[in-house]
Amino acid sequence: ENDLWWAQAAAVPGAAGTPPGSTSPADEFQSVQYGLAKMNVADAWKVTLGNPDLVVAVLDTGVDYNHPEFAGRIIKGPNFSYRKPEPTAKQGEQPAPGPDDPMDDFGHGTHVAGIIAAAADGKGVVGVAPRVKIMAIKVMGASGGGTTWDIAQGIHHAYKNGAKIINLSLGGPKSNDFVDLLISDALAHGSLVVAASGNNGWNLDGPPVSLGGLGSVPHSIYPAMYKGAMAVGATDDADKLANFSNYGRKLSVVAPGVKIVSTMPTGPCAMTKKAGFMNHYDAMSGTSMATPMAAGAAALTMSAHPDWTPAQVQEALERTADAVGPAPFFGRGRVNVGKAVI
Question: Among 332, 336, 334, 330, which residue's Cα sits nearest to residue 204?
Fold first, then answer.
């Protein structure tokens, strides 16, 4: 099956590595990174900024591995979205990244990666877990879309090559048994899969959605709805559910996902050329942004407790989440990683 899955991007520009007692990073745009304060990241940083040996896989449109925020901490994975180019390219058209090149030619993946792990270097932004490594695996191309098969290959590559957390800021309404099996296998290999719940504004416990002549599908977004995935919804700077976020008892947690400032590719890409985003840094909204917030929190928790299983890490994040809204709309609550790492 070769169904098309889409990145959950809201393309509207808007505004154990460290010993206890370490000082918190202070980066250039940190004052507008409200999500860090909401998730109590400063308290978590007193325990760890992230184990430098911990690898978080970002399965997305690629990552700009030349961005200074990721210097020395990128593991280049494959480009599963690669398609053999036409014999003649349009004049002036940039060639697409090759099969071994996970360069981001869209912009979404670089933004996601920065939320997780932008460096604590006093410049730009700082990620939730600024010392962990990012494994860049390109499963979506310059259009922001990719196939089920591309994503399946990406998941398999990630957990077979040492990624302990797999971030999936993507999704679609149709399930796939093979991807479901791969996520279960990832858990068995010690990898936590964190996935976006979707930007449809759906109650995930509601009745099926009509697709007109194409029939109907459940109020579900996959891979977030698979049993083995940690599904994440989005909140804003007032701890209210984002108006676009899917919600319901199928969520694990929620995390900040509205006007999140993070890294953008340093060179032109689809989002900077067509959607008006700036190079280097910009703000985006979506469950795509909330998901790496939660994945970064998972990275800090796993760094503080390297002997914990993925299930234990997820349980800690759920158990310590703040009840900011009525259950079950917010899952178990909004992530509070300062409590989870203890």
Answer: 330
